[in-house]
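Page 42, continued from yesterday. The earlier attempt failed because a stray header line got pasted into the input along with the sequence. Redoing it now with the clean sequence only.
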Amino acid sequence: MGRPETPLDPGAGPIARFADELRSLRRAAGSPTYRLMARRAHLSVTALSQAASGKRLPTLEVVRGYARACGADPQVWKRRWEEAAAEVAAADRGDDDAPYLGLARFGAGDRGLFFGRERLVEDLLALVREHRFAALLGASGSGKSSLLRAGLVPRLEQIVAERGWEAVLEVVTPGARPAATHLSLLTPRQGGPERWVVVDQFEEVFTQCRDRADRWRFVDLLLAARDPGSGLRVVIAMRSDFHARCAEHRELLDELRHAGLAVRPMSRTEIREAIVKPAAAAGLRVERELTARITEEVVDQPGGLPMLSHTLLETWRRRRSGVLTVAAYEAAGGVDGAIAATAEDVYGRLSPEQARTARRVLLALITPGDGAPDTRRPVRRAELREWRDPEVPVVVELLAQARLLTVDVETVELAHEALITCWPRLQGWIEEGRERLRQHRRLTEAARVWQEHGRDPGVLYRGARLSLAEALFIEGEDSGEDLTAGERSFLSASRVARTMDDWAEARTRRRTRSLVVALSTALTVALAACVGAWQQDWTAANEHTKPSPVGSPCPPTP
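This time it went through. C-alpha coordinates are written below.
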Protein backbone atom coordinates (compact mmCIF):
# COMPACT_ATOMS: atom_id res chain seq x y z
CA MET A 1 0.00 0.00 0.00
CA GLY A 2 2.95 2.37 0.51
CA ARG A 3 3.10 5.25 2.94
CA PRO A 4 -0.21 6.77 4.05
CA GLU A 5 -1.11 10.07 2.41
CA THR A 6 -1.18 13.29 4.40
CA PRO A 7 -4.73 14.03 5.60
CA LEU A 8 -6.63 16.68 3.65
CA ASP A 9 -9.24 19.23 4.68
CA PRO A 10 -11.74 19.44 1.78
CA GLY A 11 -12.98 22.71 3.17
CA ALA A 12 -9.56 24.35 2.77
CA GLY A 13 -10.27 25.37 -0.81
CA PRO A 14 -10.90 24.07 -4.34
CA ILE A 15 -7.46 22.44 -4.69
CA ALA A 16 -7.78 20.45 -1.47
CA ARG A 17 -11.37 19.50 -2.31
CA PHE A 18 -10.41 18.27 -5.78
CA ALA A 19 -7.49 16.25 -4.33
CA ASP A 20 -9.90 14.68 -1.82
CA GLU A 21 -12.21 13.71 -4.69
CA LEU A 22 -9.31 12.03 -6.47
CA ARG A 23 -8.46 10.06 -3.33
CA SER A 24 -12.10 8.99 -3.02
CA LEU A 25 -12.01 7.79 -6.61
CA ARG A 26 -8.89 5.74 -5.87
CA ARG A 27 -10.46 4.18 -2.78
CA ALA A 28 -13.57 3.29 -4.78
CA ALA A 29 -11.32 1.52 -7.29
CA GLY A 30 -9.88 -0.70 -4.54
CA SER A 31 -6.94 1.54 -3.54
CA PRO A 32 -4.51 0.41 -6.28
CA THR A 33 -0.90 1.37 -5.67
CA TYR A 34 0.43 4.39 -7.51
CA ARG A 35 2.96 2.14 -9.19
CA LEU A 36 0.14 0.04 -10.65
CA MET A 37 -1.77 3.17 -11.62
CA ALA A 38 1.35 4.54 -13.32
CA ARG A 39 1.58 1.44 -15.52
CA ARG A 40 -2.10 1.75 -16.43
CA ALA A 41 -1.98 5.48 -17.18
CA HIS A 42 1.53 5.62 -18.70
CA LEU A 43 2.40 8.40 -16.28
CA SER A 44 4.95 8.61 -13.49
CA VAL A 45 4.27 7.62 -9.90
CA THR A 46 5.28 11.11 -8.81
CA ALA A 47 2.81 12.83 -11.16
CA LEU A 48 -0.11 10.71 -9.93
CA SER A 49 0.71 10.99 -6.23
CA GLN A 50 1.18 14.76 -6.47
CA ALA A 51 -2.17 15.06 -8.22
CA ALA A 52 -3.87 13.94 -4.99
CA SER A 53 -1.51 15.75 -2.62
CA GLY A 54 -3.58 18.91 -2.44
CA LYS A 55 -0.53 21.13 -2.93
CA ARG A 56 -1.48 22.38 -6.39
CA LEU A 57 -4.06 21.70 -9.07
CA PRO A 58 -2.76 18.92 -11.36
CA THR A 59 -2.73 19.26 -15.13
CA LEU A 60 -5.67 17.99 -17.17
CA GLU A 61 -3.53 15.27 -18.74
CA VAL A 62 -2.58 13.89 -15.32
CA VAL A 63 -6.22 13.97 -14.15
CA ARG A 64 -7.33 12.05 -17.22
CA GLY A 65 -4.62 9.47 -16.60
CA TYR A 66 -5.61 9.22 -12.93
CA ALA A 67 -9.22 8.59 -13.95
CA ARG A 68 -8.25 5.93 -16.51
CA ALA A 69 -6.06 4.15 -13.96
CA CYS A 70 -9.05 3.96 -11.59
CA GLY A 71 -11.48 2.80 -14.29
CA ALA A 72 -13.39 6.09 -14.39
CA ASP A 73 -14.55 8.15 -17.38
CA PRO A 74 -11.83 10.69 -18.27
CA GLN A 75 -14.42 13.05 -19.80
CA VAL A 76 -16.35 13.23 -16.52
CA TRP A 77 -13.17 14.11 -14.68
CA LYS A 78 -12.24 16.62 -17.37
CA ARG A 79 -15.41 18.55 -16.51
CA ARG A 80 -14.65 18.28 -12.79
CA TRP A 81 -11.13 19.56 -13.39
CA GLU A 82 -12.44 22.51 -15.42
CA GLU A 83 -14.81 23.42 -12.59
CA ALA A 84 -11.98 23.22 -10.05
CA ALA A 85 -9.69 25.28 -12.29
CA ALA A 86 -12.37 27.96 -12.55
CA GLU A 87 -12.74 28.04 -8.76
CA VAL A 88 -8.97 28.30 -8.32
CA ALA A 89 -8.82 31.19 -10.79
CA ALA A 90 -11.59 32.97 -8.91
CA ALA A 91 -10.36 32.22 -5.38
CA ASP A 92 -6.61 32.54 -5.82
CA ARG A 93 -5.88 36.07 -6.88
CA GLY A 94 -2.11 35.37 -6.55
CA ASP A 95 -0.19 37.09 -9.34
CA ASP A 96 -3.40 37.99 -11.15
CA ASP A 97 -3.27 41.37 -9.41
CA ALA A 98 0.41 41.88 -10.11
CA PRO A 99 1.13 45.20 -11.81
CA TYR A 100 4.29 43.72 -13.35
CA LEU A 101 4.55 40.83 -15.79
CA GLY A 102 8.00 39.46 -14.98
CA LEU A 103 9.60 37.73 -17.97
CA ALA A 104 6.32 37.49 -19.86
CA ARG A 105 5.74 39.91 -22.72
CA PHE A 106 2.94 42.44 -22.63
CA GLY A 107 -0.17 41.66 -24.64
CA ALA A 108 -3.08 43.77 -25.82
CA GLY A 109 -4.86 43.06 -22.54
CA ASP A 110 -1.92 44.51 -20.56
CA ARG A 111 -1.89 47.95 -22.14
CA GLY A 112 -3.18 49.45 -18.88
CA LEU A 113 0.18 48.48 -17.33
CA PHE A 114 2.35 49.43 -20.30
CA PHE A 115 4.13 52.67 -19.45
CA GLY A 116 7.30 54.46 -20.52
CA ARG A 117 7.07 53.79 -24.25
CA GLU A 118 4.43 56.29 -25.35
CA ARG A 119 6.81 58.35 -27.54
CA LEU A 120 8.22 55.27 -29.24
CA VAL A 121 4.71 53.95 -29.93
CA GLU A 122 3.83 57.22 -31.65
CA ASP A 123 7.04 57.10 -33.70
CA LEU A 124 6.24 53.55 -34.80
CA LEU A 125 2.67 54.50 -35.62
CA ALA A 126 3.90 57.35 -37.82
CA LEU A 127 6.28 54.95 -39.59
CA VAL A 128 3.60 52.37 -40.41
CA ARG A 129 1.29 55.12 -41.68
CA GLU A 130 3.98 56.27 -44.10
CA HIS A 131 5.26 52.86 -45.23
CA ARG A 132 3.22 49.79 -46.16
CA PHE A 133 6.19 47.67 -45.08
CA ALA A 134 7.91 48.75 -41.86
CA ALA A 135 10.44 47.20 -39.51
CA LEU A 136 11.18 47.53 -35.81
CA LEU A 137 14.76 46.65 -34.86
CA GLY A 138 16.18 46.22 -31.38
CA ALA A 139 18.39 44.13 -29.14
CA SER A 140 17.06 41.12 -27.27
CA GLY A 141 15.34 42.41 -24.15
CA SER A 142 14.64 45.87 -25.59
CA GLY A 143 10.87 45.32 -25.47
CA LYS A 144 10.05 44.84 -29.17
CA SER A 145 7.30 42.27 -28.66
CA SER A 146 5.63 44.29 -25.92
CA LEU A 147 5.90 47.44 -28.00
CA LEU A 148 4.04 45.73 -30.84
CA ARG A 149 1.43 43.87 -28.83
CA ALA A 150 0.63 46.33 -26.04
CA GLY A 151 1.60 49.52 -27.87
CA LEU A 152 1.13 49.48 -31.64
CA VAL A 153 -1.69 46.95 -32.04
CA PRO A 154 -4.07 48.60 -29.52
CA ARG A 155 -3.43 52.01 -31.12
CA LEU A 156 -4.16 50.60 -34.58
CA GLU A 157 -7.35 48.98 -33.29
CA GLN A 158 -8.36 52.28 -31.75
CA ILE A 159 -7.76 54.20 -35.00
CA VAL A 160 -9.63 51.60 -37.07
CA ALA A 161 -12.62 51.77 -34.71
CA GLU A 162 -12.67 55.58 -34.56
CA ARG A 163 -12.54 56.02 -38.33
CA GLY A 164 -14.84 53.14 -39.16
CA TRP A 165 -12.29 51.43 -41.38
CA GLU A 166 -12.70 47.85 -42.49
CA ALA A 167 -9.45 46.15 -41.52
CA VAL A 168 -8.11 42.89 -40.11
CA LEU A 169 -5.12 42.80 -37.72
CA GLU A 170 -3.08 39.64 -37.28
CA VAL A 171 -0.01 39.07 -35.10
CA VAL A 172 2.09 36.07 -36.17
CA THR A 173 5.56 34.57 -35.76
CA PRO A 174 7.36 32.93 -38.72
CA GLY A 175 7.96 29.44 -37.34
CA ALA A 176 9.79 26.65 -39.17
CA ARG A 177 7.86 26.94 -42.46
CA PRO A 178 6.83 30.59 -42.68
CA ALA A 179 5.75 30.75 -46.32
CA ALA A 180 3.80 27.50 -46.21
CA THR A 181 2.20 28.41 -42.88
CA HIS A 182 1.15 31.98 -43.68
CA LEU A 183 0.57 31.75 -47.44
CA SER A 184 -3.20 32.29 -47.29
CA LEU A 185 -2.81 35.28 -44.95
CA LEU A 186 -0.22 36.99 -47.16
CA THR A 187 -1.62 36.24 -50.61
CA PRO A 188 -2.71 39.51 -52.31
CA ARG A 189 -6.47 39.83 -52.74
CA GLN A 190 -8.72 42.10 -54.70
CA GLY A 191 -11.34 43.82 -52.58
CA GLY A 192 -12.21 42.95 -48.98
CA PRO A 193 -10.81 44.53 -45.83
CA GLU A 194 -7.22 45.67 -45.66
CA ARG A 195 -5.00 43.27 -43.73
CA TRP A 196 -2.42 44.47 -41.21
CA VAL A 197 0.06 41.67 -40.53
CA VAL A 198 2.43 42.14 -37.58
CA VAL A 199 5.32 39.65 -37.70
CA ASP A 200 6.92 39.32 -34.28
CA GLN A 201 10.32 37.59 -33.81
CA PHE A 202 11.14 37.86 -37.50
CA GLU A 203 14.61 36.42 -36.76
CA GLU A 204 12.93 33.00 -36.70
CA VAL A 205 13.29 32.96 -40.49
CA PHE A 206 17.00 32.41 -39.77
CA THR A 207 16.90 30.46 -36.49
CA GLN A 208 13.92 28.15 -37.14
CA CYS A 209 13.48 27.96 -40.93
CA ARG A 210 16.08 25.70 -42.57
CA ASP A 211 14.52 25.78 -46.03
CA ARG A 212 16.10 28.71 -47.89
CA ALA A 213 13.46 28.64 -50.63
CA ASP A 214 10.63 28.84 -48.09
CA ARG A 215 12.46 31.58 -46.15
CA TRP A 216 12.91 33.92 -49.10
CA ARG A 217 9.47 33.17 -50.46
CA PHE A 218 8.07 34.34 -47.12
CA VAL A 219 10.13 37.53 -47.38
CA ASP A 220 8.85 38.12 -50.91
CA LEU A 221 5.27 37.68 -49.70
CA LEU A 222 5.87 40.29 -47.01
CA LEU A 223 7.52 42.73 -49.40
CA ALA A 224 4.52 42.45 -51.74
CA ALA A 225 2.76 44.73 -49.23
CA ARG A 226 4.62 47.65 -50.85
CA ASP A 227 2.14 47.43 -53.72
CA PRO A 228 -0.94 49.52 -52.79
CA GLY A 229 -3.10 47.05 -54.68
CA SER A 230 -2.09 44.13 -52.44
CA GLY A 231 -4.55 45.04 -49.69
CA LEU A 232 -1.77 44.29 -47.24
CA ARG A 233 0.34 46.21 -44.72
CA VAL A 234 3.23 44.56 -42.87
CA VAL A 235 5.20 45.40 -39.73
CA ILE A 236 8.08 43.14 -38.67
CA ALA A 237 10.07 43.13 -35.43
CA MET A 238 13.57 41.66 -35.52
CA ARG A 239 16.56 41.41 -33.25
CA SER A 240 19.17 43.86 -34.48
CA ASP A 241 21.98 41.27 -34.33
CA PHE A 242 20.35 39.50 -37.29
CA HIS A 243 20.51 42.59 -39.49
CA ALA A 244 23.59 41.31 -41.35
CA ARG A 245 21.71 38.15 -42.39
CA CYS A 246 19.21 40.32 -44.25
CA ALA A 247 21.97 41.29 -46.69
CA GLU A 248 21.26 37.97 -48.39
CA HIS A 249 18.08 39.59 -49.75
CA ARG A 250 18.84 43.00 -51.30
CA GLU A 251 15.25 44.29 -51.37
CA LEU A 252 14.73 43.40 -47.71
CA LEU A 253 17.94 45.16 -46.75
CA ASP A 254 16.86 48.27 -48.67
CA GLU A 255 13.52 48.34 -46.86
CA LEU A 256 15.20 48.04 -43.47
CA ARG A 257 17.29 51.11 -44.34
CA HIS A 258 14.37 53.23 -45.54
CA ALA A 259 11.49 51.99 -43.37
CA GLY A 260 13.19 50.78 -40.19
CA LEU A 261 12.92 52.11 -36.64
CA ALA A 262 15.48 51.29 -33.97
CA VAL A 263 14.21 50.65 -30.44
CA ARG A 264 16.16 53.16 -28.41
CA PRO A 265 17.00 52.57 -24.73
CA MET A 266 14.54 53.97 -22.21
CA SER A 267 15.49 57.27 -20.65
CA ARG A 268 15.58 57.74 -16.89
CA THR A 269 12.17 59.38 -17.01
CA GLU A 270 10.70 56.49 -19.00
CA ILE A 271 12.21 53.91 -16.62
CA ARG A 272 10.72 55.74 -13.63
CA GLU A 273 7.32 55.71 -15.34
CA ALA A 274 7.64 51.95 -16.00
CA ILE A 275 8.37 51.44 -12.28
CA VAL A 276 5.95 53.81 -10.60
CA LYS A 277 2.88 54.04 -12.84
CA PRO A 278 1.93 50.31 -12.87
CA ALA A 279 2.17 50.28 -9.06
CA ALA A 280 0.03 53.43 -8.83
CA ALA A 281 -2.56 51.83 -11.13
CA ALA A 282 -2.79 48.95 -8.65
CA GLY A 283 -3.05 51.30 -5.66
CA LEU A 284 0.51 50.67 -4.51
CA ARG A 285 3.48 52.88 -3.76
CA VAL A 286 7.18 52.50 -4.56
CA GLU A 287 9.80 53.92 -2.21
CA ARG A 288 11.66 56.81 -3.85
CA GLU A 289 15.00 55.31 -2.92
CA LEU A 290 14.03 52.07 -4.64
CA THR A 291 12.91 53.89 -7.78
CA ALA A 292 16.18 55.80 -7.96
CA ARG A 293 18.27 52.71 -7.30
CA ILE A 294 16.60 50.54 -9.95
CA THR A 295 16.68 53.36 -12.47
CA GLU A 296 20.44 53.77 -12.13
CA GLU A 297 21.02 50.01 -12.37
CA VAL A 298 18.93 49.59 -15.53
CA VAL A 299 19.54 52.77 -17.52
CA ASP A 300 21.65 52.23 -20.67
CA GLN A 301 21.88 48.49 -19.90
CA PRO A 302 21.26 46.49 -23.10
CA GLY A 303 18.45 43.99 -22.71
CA GLY A 304 17.67 45.24 -19.21
CA LEU A 305 13.87 45.50 -19.51
CA PRO A 306 12.98 41.85 -18.79
CA MET A 307 15.32 41.90 -15.79
CA LEU A 308 13.65 45.11 -14.63
CA SER A 309 10.17 43.66 -15.00
CA HIS A 310 11.04 40.40 -13.28
CA THR A 311 12.78 42.18 -10.41
CA LEU A 312 9.74 44.39 -9.88
CA LEU A 313 7.46 41.35 -9.87
CA GLU A 314 9.58 39.61 -7.24
CA THR A 315 9.74 42.82 -5.22
CA TRP A 316 5.95 43.15 -5.46
CA ARG A 317 5.57 39.61 -4.11
CA ARG A 318 7.52 40.70 -1.04
CA ARG A 319 5.72 44.03 -0.56
CA ARG A 320 4.65 45.24 2.86
CA SER A 321 1.45 47.20 3.49
CA GLY A 322 1.09 48.18 -0.15
CA VAL A 323 4.64 49.52 -0.45
CA LEU A 324 7.48 48.19 -2.60
CA THR A 325 10.59 48.64 -0.47
CA VAL A 326 14.34 48.49 -0.87
CA ALA A 327 14.41 45.61 1.62
CA ALA A 328 11.99 43.61 -0.56
CA TYR A 329 14.08 44.41 -3.63
CA GLU A 330 17.26 43.17 -1.98
CA ALA A 331 15.51 40.04 -0.74
CA ALA A 332 14.49 39.31 -4.34
CA GLY A 333 18.14 39.42 -5.45
CA GLY A 334 18.18 42.77 -7.21
CA VAL A 335 18.27 43.37 -10.95
CA ASP A 336 21.23 41.06 -11.54
CA GLY A 337 20.11 38.16 -9.38
CA ALA A 338 16.29 38.02 -9.41
CA ILE A 339 15.91 35.83 -12.49
CA ALA A 340 18.56 33.35 -11.37
CA ALA A 341 17.11 33.32 -7.84
CA THR A 342 13.62 32.52 -9.12
CA ALA A 343 14.85 29.82 -11.50
CA GLU A 344 17.01 28.21 -8.81
CA ASP A 345 14.14 28.28 -6.33
CA VAL A 346 11.83 26.49 -8.76
CA TYR A 347 14.53 24.01 -9.78
CA GLY A 348 15.40 23.28 -6.17
CA ARG A 349 11.82 22.24 -5.39
CA LEU A 350 11.74 19.59 -8.13
CA SER A 351 12.25 15.90 -7.45
CA PRO A 352 15.40 14.32 -8.94
CA GLU A 353 13.34 12.85 -11.80
CA GLN A 354 11.64 16.18 -12.44
CA ALA A 355 14.98 18.01 -12.33
CA ARG A 356 16.34 15.76 -15.10
CA THR A 357 13.18 16.34 -17.11
CA ALA A 358 13.40 20.11 -16.57
CA ARG A 359 16.92 20.10 -17.98
CA ARG A 360 15.77 18.27 -21.11
CA VAL A 361 12.73 20.51 -21.58
CA LEU A 362 14.65 23.76 -21.17
CA LEU A 363 17.39 22.67 -23.58
CA ALA A 364 14.75 21.62 -26.11
CA LEU A 365 13.49 25.21 -26.06
CA ILE A 366 16.86 26.64 -27.16
CA THR A 367 18.53 26.97 -30.54
CA PRO A 368 22.32 27.12 -30.06
CA GLY A 369 23.89 30.04 -31.88
CA ASP A 370 26.23 29.40 -34.76
CA GLY A 371 28.33 32.55 -34.69
CA ALA A 372 25.38 34.32 -33.04
CA PRO A 373 23.82 34.37 -29.55
CA ASP A 374 21.72 31.43 -28.42
CA THR A 375 17.99 31.97 -28.99
CA ARG A 376 14.77 30.56 -27.64
CA ARG A 377 12.90 28.02 -29.73
CA PRO A 378 9.14 27.44 -29.60
CA VAL A 379 8.17 23.76 -29.45
CA ARG A 380 4.76 22.37 -30.25
CA ARG A 381 3.07 20.76 -27.26
CA ALA A 382 2.27 17.77 -29.48
CA GLU A 383 6.02 17.14 -29.83
CA LEU A 384 6.53 17.15 -26.06
CA ARG A 385 3.70 14.64 -25.69
CA GLU A 386 5.69 12.28 -27.92
CA TRP A 387 8.58 12.14 -25.45
CA ARG A 388 8.91 8.93 -23.49
CA ASP A 389 9.42 10.87 -20.25
CA PRO A 390 6.14 10.84 -18.25
CA GLU A 391 7.26 13.79 -16.10
CA VAL A 392 7.11 16.27 -18.98
CA PRO A 393 3.52 17.54 -18.43
CA VAL A 394 4.11 18.09 -14.71
CA VAL A 395 7.42 19.90 -15.20
CA VAL A 396 6.05 22.14 -17.95
CA GLU A 397 3.17 23.12 -15.69
CA LEU A 398 5.50 23.92 -12.78
CA LEU A 399 7.83 26.02 -14.92
CA ALA A 400 4.87 27.83 -16.48
CA GLN A 401 3.41 28.61 -13.04
CA ALA A 402 6.75 30.18 -12.14
CA ARG A 403 6.57 32.24 -15.37
CA LEU A 404 9.78 30.73 -16.67
CA LEU A 405 7.85 29.26 -19.61
CA THR A 406 5.08 30.68 -21.75
CA VAL A 407 2.47 28.08 -22.65
CA ASP A 408 -0.45 28.46 -25.03
CA VAL A 409 -2.77 26.03 -26.80
CA GLU A 410 -0.20 25.05 -29.42
CA THR A 411 3.32 25.83 -28.19
CA VAL A 412 5.70 26.03 -25.25
CA GLU A 413 8.67 28.45 -25.15
CA LEU A 414 10.99 30.25 -22.76
CA ALA A 415 9.32 33.30 -21.27
CA HIS A 416 12.28 35.39 -22.41
CA GLU A 417 15.80 34.96 -23.72
CA ALA A 418 17.01 36.78 -20.62
CA LEU A 419 16.63 33.42 -18.90
CA ILE A 420 19.48 32.12 -21.10
CA THR A 421 21.85 34.94 -20.18
CA CYS A 422 20.89 35.41 -16.51
CA TRP A 423 20.68 31.84 -15.19
CA PRO A 424 24.17 30.34 -14.77
CA ARG A 425 22.86 26.79 -14.40
CA LEU A 426 21.12 26.94 -17.77
CA GLN A 427 24.19 28.49 -19.35
CA GLY A 428 26.25 25.58 -18.03
CA TRP A 429 23.82 23.05 -19.47
CA ILE A 430 23.96 24.73 -22.86
CA GLU A 431 27.76 24.79 -22.98
CA GLU A 432 27.99 21.20 -21.77
CA GLY A 433 25.54 19.92 -24.38
CA ARG A 434 26.11 22.42 -27.20
CA GLU A 435 27.21 19.83 -29.77
CA ARG A 436 24.31 17.55 -28.89
CA LEU A 437 21.91 20.49 -29.22
CA ARG A 438 23.28 21.34 -32.66
CA GLN A 439 23.00 17.74 -33.82
CA HIS A 440 19.50 17.46 -32.37
CA ARG A 441 18.30 20.49 -34.34
CA ARG A 442 19.80 18.94 -37.49
CA LEU A 443 18.11 15.64 -36.69
CA THR A 444 14.77 17.43 -36.25
CA GLU A 445 15.13 19.07 -39.65
CA ALA A 446 16.27 15.84 -41.34
CA ALA A 447 13.30 13.94 -39.88
CA ARG A 448 10.92 16.66 -41.10
CA VAL A 449 12.35 16.57 -44.64
CA TRP A 450 12.18 12.77 -44.62
CA GLN A 451 8.49 12.87 -43.71
CA GLU A 452 7.72 15.56 -46.28
CA HIS A 453 9.39 13.55 -49.04
CA GLY A 454 7.33 10.47 -48.35
CA ARG A 455 10.01 8.81 -46.24
CA ASP A 456 12.49 8.84 -49.09
CA PRO A 457 15.37 6.45 -48.22
CA GLY A 458 17.80 8.84 -49.89
CA VAL A 459 17.28 11.37 -47.07
CA LEU A 460 18.21 8.94 -44.28
CA TYR A 461 21.40 9.22 -42.26
CA ARG A 462 24.31 7.04 -43.30
CA GLY A 463 27.96 6.59 -42.49
CA ALA A 464 29.56 8.99 -40.02
CA ARG A 465 26.37 11.02 -39.50
CA LEU A 466 24.44 7.96 -38.41
CA SER A 467 27.25 6.79 -36.14
CA LEU A 468 27.34 10.21 -34.46
CA ALA A 469 23.56 10.27 -34.03
CA GLU A 470 23.64 6.80 -32.47
CA ALA A 471 26.34 7.86 -30.04
CA LEU A 472 24.42 11.01 -29.01
CA PHE A 473 20.79 9.90 -29.02
CA ILE A 474 20.71 6.11 -28.64
CA GLU A 475 23.81 5.13 -26.69
CA GLY A 476 24.09 8.41 -24.76
CA GLU A 477 22.98 9.25 -21.25
CA ASP A 478 19.45 10.33 -22.22
CA SER A 479 18.92 7.34 -24.55
CA GLY A 480 16.49 9.24 -26.76
CA GLU A 481 14.19 10.38 -23.96
CA ASP A 482 13.88 13.80 -25.60
CA LEU A 483 13.25 12.55 -29.14
CA THR A 484 9.88 12.82 -30.82
CA ALA A 485 8.22 9.83 -32.45
CA GLY A 486 9.20 11.19 -35.87
CA GLU A 487 12.84 11.54 -34.88
CA ARG A 488 12.93 8.04 -33.40
CA SER A 489 11.34 6.64 -36.59
CA PHE A 490 13.91 8.46 -38.70
CA LEU A 491 16.82 7.01 -36.74
CA SER A 492 15.27 3.54 -36.76
CA ALA A 493 14.77 3.71 -40.53
CA SER A 494 18.37 4.92 -40.93
CA ARG A 495 19.67 1.95 -38.94
CA VAL A 496 17.51 -0.47 -40.92
CA ALA A 497 18.76 1.09 -44.15
CA ARG A 498 22.34 0.67 -42.96
CA THR A 499 21.69 -2.99 -42.17
CA MET A 500 20.17 -3.49 -45.61
CA ASP A 501 23.09 -1.67 -47.23
CA ASP A 502 25.55 -3.85 -45.29
CA TRP A 503 23.63 -6.98 -46.30
CA ALA A 504 23.53 -5.89 -49.94
CA GLU A 505 27.22 -5.04 -49.85
CA ALA A 506 28.05 -8.42 -48.28
CA ARG A 507 25.88 -10.15 -50.87
CA THR A 508 27.64 -8.27 -53.64
CA ARG A 509 31.01 -9.27 -52.18
CA ARG A 510 29.93 -12.93 -52.03
CA ARG A 511 28.70 -12.80 -55.61
CA THR A 512 31.91 -11.13 -56.70
CA ARG A 513 33.99 -13.77 -54.96
CA SER A 514 31.94 -16.56 -56.56
CA LEU A 515 32.26 -14.95 -59.95
CA VAL A 516 36.01 -14.54 -59.52
CA VAL A 517 36.34 -18.19 -58.53
CA ALA A 518 34.24 -19.31 -61.49
CA LEU A 519 36.17 -17.13 -63.89
CA SER A 520 39.46 -18.30 -62.45
CA THR A 521 38.41 -21.92 -62.82
CA ALA A 522 37.19 -21.36 -66.35
CA LEU A 523 40.37 -19.51 -67.23
CA THR A 524 42.48 -22.29 -65.73
CA VAL A 525 40.58 -24.93 -67.72
CA ALA A 526 40.82 -22.85 -70.85
CA LEU A 527 44.53 -22.30 -70.36
CA ALA A 528 45.04 -26.01 -69.72
CA ALA A 529 43.13 -26.85 -72.88
CA CYS A 530 45.13 -24.34 -74.85
CA VAL A 531 48.42 -25.71 -73.52
CA GLY A 532 47.33 -29.25 -74.30
CA ALA A 533 46.30 -28.35 -77.84
CA TRP A 534 49.51 -26.50 -78.40
CA GLN A 535 51.52 -29.46 -77.19
CA GLN A 536 49.63 -31.75 -79.51
CA ASP A 537 50.21 -29.46 -82.48
CA TRP A 538 53.88 -29.14 -81.63
CA THR A 539 54.28 -32.88 -81.32
CA ALA A 540 52.54 -33.47 -84.64
CA ALA A 541 54.64 -30.86 -86.39
CA ASN A 542 57.78 -32.30 -84.89
CA GLU A 543 56.88 -35.79 -86.04
CA HIS A 544 56.24 -34.52 -89.58
CA THR A 545 59.64 -32.89 -89.92
CA LYS A 546 61.69 -35.63 -88.22
CA PRO A 547 64.57 -37.12 -90.63
CA SER A 548 64.70 -40.84 -91.57
CA PRO A 549 66.95 -43.08 -89.43
CA VAL A 550 70.66 -43.62 -90.57
CA GLY A 551 71.31 -46.89 -92.54
CA SER A 552 67.80 -47.30 -93.77
CA PRO A 553 67.60 -48.83 -97.30
CA CYS A 554 67.42 -46.38 -100.14
CA PRO A 555 64.35 -46.47 -102.26
CA PRO A 556 64.67 -48.59 -105.47
CA THR A 557 65.89 -46.88 -108.68
CA PRO A 558 63.17 -46.68 -111.25
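Notes: The mean pLDDT is 85.
Reminder to self: strip header lines before submitting.
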